[in-house]
Specification:
Blueprint lengths: L1 E5 L7 H11 L4 E7 L2 H13 L3 E7 L2 E8 L22 E5 L9 H17 L6 E4 L14 H9 L3 E5 H6 L10 E3 L1 H10 L1 E4 L1
Parallel strand pairs: 1-2, 5-6, 5-9, 6-7, 7-8
Antiparallel strand pairs: 2-4, 3-4
């Protein structure tokens, strides 16, 4: 079975959701999703790969044709659910960071608390499962961030670090992303519902 999805012009996370619906509707076969920007391409590819599908991408005239094969053999991840590169245990906590300072009342104090928070997370056990940045929080994952060293250490230890692509675009910061990956609202929601979510 083969299905084509024309997701050109659709805002995040609509291309991913349209792809998911098409894949859910078939037991096996091919879904080809067409998108018109690199961010949508990356989001659909990541979703398909995470769903255990085979993926290939072809660029044609500024558009991307993403061929997703459901039922294709994909190499299994042999690491255990609690494995980290440094051997530290994994928790199920997911932090949703919504701004670049912590708390309300004083932004100067909030900046100090933010540094303290990420240092503490870096040194604690178990490590969080993921740290997700949305809205003004994405300023913490770009070049010049006061907590960049902590975030890089956490990412190197195996913590998933993701920043909202729509938010990075809104603030004109996508080219300055310095740690982790770009994501979409579908993936953010997936992480939040799969773990113990804490919003800051």
């Amino acid at each position: 079975m083969s299905t084509d999805i024309d997701a050109r012009g659709l805002a995040c996370p609509q291309p991913v959701i349209a792809t998911k619906k098409a894949l859910d509707a078939i037991a096996d076969g091919v879904v080809t999703t067409i998108v018109d920007n690199a961010a949508a391409k990356e989001n659909v590819v990541k979703f398909a790969a995470a769903s255990g599908c085979g993926v290939s991408v072809e660029e044609q005239g500024g558009h991307y044709r993403i061929r997703i094969t459901k039922g294709a053999p994909v190499a299994a991840d042999k690491s255990g659910p609690g494995d980290r590169p440094d051997g530290r245990p994994t928790g199920d906590t997911v932090y949703l960071i919504t701004k670049d300072t912590l708390g309300h009342g004083s932004d100067d104090l909030g900046a100090i608390l933010t540094k303290s928070f990420f240092y503490t997370v870096r040194e604690s056990q178990p490590l969080p499962k993921a740290i997700l940045f949305i809205n003004g929080g994405v300023r913490l994952s770009v070049a010049g961030s006061p907590v960049l060293d902590h975030l890089r250490a956490l990412a190197a230890a195996g913590v998933t670090v993701l920043s909202c692509g729509t938010c990075l675009d809104f603030f004109g910061l996508k080219d300055e992303l310095a740690v982790g990956g770009v994501t979409n609202m579908y993936t953010i929601l997936d992480h939040l519902t799969a773990g113990k979510a804490i919003t800051l």
